[in-house]
């Protein structure tokens, strides 16, 4: 996905509404970035003034209604997505602003305290390399936010990852497990319904009138 965003930036466009709902999977199980309704063409170094997007993915400068660089805000949204994929939750409670109970640690550059809080709440622990990547993508100060080039060269992204075939197999196995679970749930539901029908038949006559003892 970082490569896709890097590509549109090189073409002179910014997306401005990158979020989980706009990331699709094609027939080859490759990620596809969709919905360019809020995208716009930008010149190098151009500041934007339209405060648009989805609030949970908005960079702090947009939340504060400041002029912003579209590329940097796309990177911030990617950071939110990465966190969501790891923790099944957003990295902050409301919006990316200093008053937020979680994002305030980014605003204060107290990353150690932030990750201690996250790990205490989620019981999930990830590598320092991954945390440093997220810290850079979600940086409060736009001048300290990581660039797309730095993301693609980051050590965490250049570690061993599953091949395309392995990813395809993982996803297929996941779908099979979900289908099996749904079938098992249907069997349990049907069994419960049959049991209830038999119980009712025992308490009531075939005409639906309660039998007298």
From TrEMBL:
Keyword annotations from UniProtKB, A to Z: Kinase, Transferase
Alphabetical list of Gene3D superfamilies matching this protein: Transferase(Phosphotransferase) domain 1
Alphabetized GO MF terms: ATP binding; protein serine/threonine kinase activity
Gene Ontology CC terms: nucleus
Name of this chain's protein: Protein kinase-like domain
PANTHER family reported in the protein's UniProt record: OVARIAN-SPECIFIC SERINE/THREONINE-PROTEIN KINASE LOK-RELATED, SERINE_THREONINE-PROTEIN KINASE CHK2
Superkingdom: Eukaryota
UniProt cross-references to InterPro entries, sorted A to Z: Kinase-like_dom_sf (IPR011009), Prot_kinase_dom (IPR000719), Ser/Thr_kinase_AS (IPR008271)
PROSITE patterns the UniProt entry points to: PROTEIN_KINASE_DOM, PROTEIN_KINASE_ST
GO biological process, any: mitotic DNA damage checkpoint signaling
SUPFAM superfamilies cross-referenced by the UniProt entry: Protein kinase-like (PK-like)
Stretches with biased composition (Polar residues): 188-204
Domain spans labelled Protein kinase: 1-157
Region (Disordered): 182-213
